[in-house]
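Retro notes (design track)

What went well: tokenization of the new backbones is finally stable.
What didn't: we kept losing track of which sequence belonged to which structure.
Fix going forward: every design gets posted as structure first, then sequence, in one message. First example under the new rule, 409 residues:
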């Protein structure tokens, strides 16, 4: 779901975010019960639009509360005073969201115009607003959140419970060193474009994503985004590097995207049919398995030749990274590898292998060898969706594993 990522969720070699978006919690309540002991018990301290927990996760809803207040007060008139839009934009959550867009940070006048565009009856009032980039998306998102505000309020009550916040903290910490997480880790909800974003210590979630996806799915997406952002930060873009460094960076990104997709439980992603854009988001295991099959075959052909010649590797590794990006293989092949490890060797083995690319590759090689012979077709009924995955050929695997081991995580 590339409408959900760190900047924006896309399957490419730009910094990942969101999805993308870009989810898997079997049961919020049952998992929360198990995690309370790990958190040492849970308490909360609530302020206006702010709920903290003993587990280091803070939920912020002050921008959502301000959005509702603006809508109730100014929707009948059809326009928001600039100073009110500016005050809303200065709330901590809204400020984090605006600054996450860097040079594109929307000024107060744009926030005001988005409200005006979203208010019902704009055209009838004779105040049509000149179309501009992003306005249609924001109008749709504002209206969707407004139309589902009761459901959003109810879901936020569940998320604000201490056991839910501890469940989220435990889910994230299971995939890396908790010392790398900000303290507190802030999770902010407000109407934005249908996406998840990050800004320093804050994860920013569109309230429409919550309304259309529900608590369980949104918690999985948050955990995935936190893993990408804090527990598995990415090196420089692999297509901007050369030789062994480029190849190692490609597999670091592939590993991170694959584990993030597994945490997200991406194949289970579902959004309600009434969301104007997210209703079209779906992920099909058969498609991912075919991409993985093709990319492994391509790697078995290309990588041995490249790795046998340092000059060829210097030039060819960035091109290999671009092929991974163009085919969507960073996420698709990565997800197949992670799912194969978890399905055939267990989730604990995936967690052990997740921090280091060489370990991840070795675990995949072992797990893929356990898939049935003859290999089923991708997506064939009666088999797990990843059952068609094959190990890398030995002539590709062995030198590749050595390169990954030399270049660290």
């Amino acid at each position: 779901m590339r409408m959900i990522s760190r900047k924006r969720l896309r399957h490419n070699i730009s910094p990942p975010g969101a999805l993308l978006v870009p989810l898997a919690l079997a049961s919020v309540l049952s998992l929360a019960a198990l995690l309370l002991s790990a958190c040492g018990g849970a308490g909360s301290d609530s302020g206006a639009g702010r709920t903290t927990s003993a587990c280091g996760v803070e939920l912020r809803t002050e921008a959502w509360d301000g959005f509702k207040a603006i809508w109730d007060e100014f929707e009948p008139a059809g326009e928001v005073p600039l100073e009110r839009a500016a005050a809303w934009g200065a709330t901590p959550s809204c400020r984090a969201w605006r600054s996450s867009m860097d040079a594109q940070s929307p000024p107060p006048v744009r926030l005001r115009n988005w409200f005006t565009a979203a208010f019902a009856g704009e055209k009838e009032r004779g105040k049509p607003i000149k179309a501009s980039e992003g306005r249609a998306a924001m109008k749709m998102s504002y209206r969707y959140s407004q139309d589902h505000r009761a459901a959003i309020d109810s879901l936020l009550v569940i998320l604000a419970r201490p056991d839910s916040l501890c469940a989220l903290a435990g889910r994230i910490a299971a995939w890396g060193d908790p010392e790398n997480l900000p303290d507190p880790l802030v999770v902010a909800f407000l109407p934005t474009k249908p996406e998840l974003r990050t800004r320093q210590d804050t994860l920013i979630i569109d309230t429409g994503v919550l309304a259309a996806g529900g608590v369980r799915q949104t918690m999985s997406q948050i955990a995935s985004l936190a893993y990408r952002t804090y527990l598995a930060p990415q090196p420089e873009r692999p297509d901007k590097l050369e030789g062994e460094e480029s190849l190692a960076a490609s597999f670091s990104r592939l590993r991170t995207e694959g584990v993030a997709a597994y945490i997200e439980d991406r194949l289970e992603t579902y959004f309600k049919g009434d969301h104007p854009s997210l209703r079209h988001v779906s992920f099909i295991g058969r498609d991912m398995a075919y991409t993985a099959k093709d990319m492994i075959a391509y790697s078995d052909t290309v990588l041995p030749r490249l790795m046998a010649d340092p000059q060829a590797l210097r030039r060819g590794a960035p091109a290999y990274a671009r092929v991974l990006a163009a085919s969507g293989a960073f996420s698709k092949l990565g997800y197949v590898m992670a799912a194969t490890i978890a399905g055939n060797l267990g989730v604990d083995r995936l967690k052990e292998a997740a921090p280091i690319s060489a370990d991840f590759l070795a675990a995949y090689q072992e797990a893929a060898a356990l898939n049935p012979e003859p290999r089923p077709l991708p997506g064939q009924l009666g088999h797990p969706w990843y059952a068609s995955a094959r190990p890398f050929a030995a002539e590709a695997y062995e030198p590749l594993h050595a390169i990954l081991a030399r270049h660290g995580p």
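Added context from the reviewer: The chain has 16 helices and six strands.
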